[in-house]
Each structure stands twice: as structure tokens, then as C-alpha cells.
Amino acid sequence: MSRIGNLTACCITVVLSMFLLSGAMAQDTEEKQAVSKVSLEKQKLYELFEKKLNNVQFKGNFTVLGREQKGDLPKETYTIKSVKKLAQGEYWLFTARVQYGGKDITVPMSLQVQWADSTPVITLTNANIPGLGTFSSRVVIYKNKYAGTWSHGDVGGHLFGTIEPAPAEVKDK
Q1: Could you report the average pLDDT of every consecutive run of 10 residues in the chain (173 residues)?
Q2: Quick one: CATH architecture of 54-172?
Q3: Residues 13-29 as b or e (16 or more Cβ within 10 Å = b)
């Protein structure tokens, strides 16, 4: 190959390398922007979740699988005083007033919240709630409604209802 041929080949190699490098740099920038956009969207979801679940009540009904239901379904009310994102993974600190089985206690609970796109799913797996026992559940939150499954030992069922602002007298307790 002549000197001009070598020079041309070298120039083509340099130009191709620069083209490929600029493409890789652009792709890297696009990926960083995409990650930044996802992080910003996730942060907005987190802020909305915290705002939506502070000083609210989950009011609804539950079922017990295997138990014949006569009349109206049993009622349930859970007051969520506050929800705050923890630094560790997808865990959140829920401070909730639980009225269950003749007990009325307010407990802080570290609960995992998983996301199905923009829909939060509160997840407990064999979580020990002091004074109440060990529970597992999956509760989907959508708009002003909740629905899910629950288990407490060998007993379990479904739960569903609405999310409403907590009455003033409940907020103060």
C-alpha cells in the first residue's frame, strides 16, 4: 500500500473512531438522562405516596376464607398517621393505629412497598406486629381505594375499601 493509501486508511480509521466514540458518548448521555428522568419520576411517586397516606383511614371490609359469611361483611378501620420513605431500599415507616381483636394500638412499622409501574403495593411477609402477632399481606393502593389479601397464621382472606381523610379526633389520638 502506498503512503497516500496508508494515510487515507489512517484518516478513515480516525474518523470512524471519532464517529463511534461520539455515538457512544451520546448513548451514555442519553442513558444518564433516562436514569435521571426515572429517578425524578420515582421521587414524584414517593412524594405523592407520602402525601396521600398521611392522616388517612383505610375503611372497608374483610373476608375470612373458609368461613361461611352470613349478613354483612366484617368491617375494618386502620388509621395511617404518617408514612415516610426510609433510606434502605423500598422500605417505608408507617405509623398506624390498628384496632383489631379488641386491641387498639399505635405502632411504627417498617414495611416494604413495591411498585407495579405507578401503583404501590404494601407488602408484609411474616411480619411480627408487636401485640398483634405475625401477618402477611399484599395491599394494592389505587386512587382512593385499597384491595388485597391477608393472612395471620393459618387464617387468611381478602380486604378492600376506601382511603379517606382521618377525622380530627382520630388524628389527635
Answers
A1: 56 51 57 60 92 95 90 91 93 90 86 94 91 92 96 95 88 51
A2: Beta Barrel (2.40)
A3: eeeeeeeeeeeeeeeee
